[in-house]
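Structure tokens please, single chain.
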Amino acid sequence: MRRLVAAIERLASRFCADTRIHLRHETFNLAAEREIIDWITMRRIGILAFNDHMEGTLKARHRPDKIATMVERSGLTDGEFMGLVERVYSRKGEVPASR
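Here you go.
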């Protein structure tokens, strides 16, 4: 995302349209909060949407067909992926304040 934003900013004067970034932010991505606030302040983001795919991921744990696709996309092993899901979800109490 950082490279994409930088490329759009670098090339914006060559575009034939007013191109802006629509950031779809995963609410459980608490590590990105400060950077996203900075991007908004610097007007690098045109639109910000909040997404929460964690509930769906948690439900998919019991559906091997669904979770296998997520694990494959992540590049992690099954155990690493489920460990990541558990660590991320363990911070659910911090999400409302971040939003």
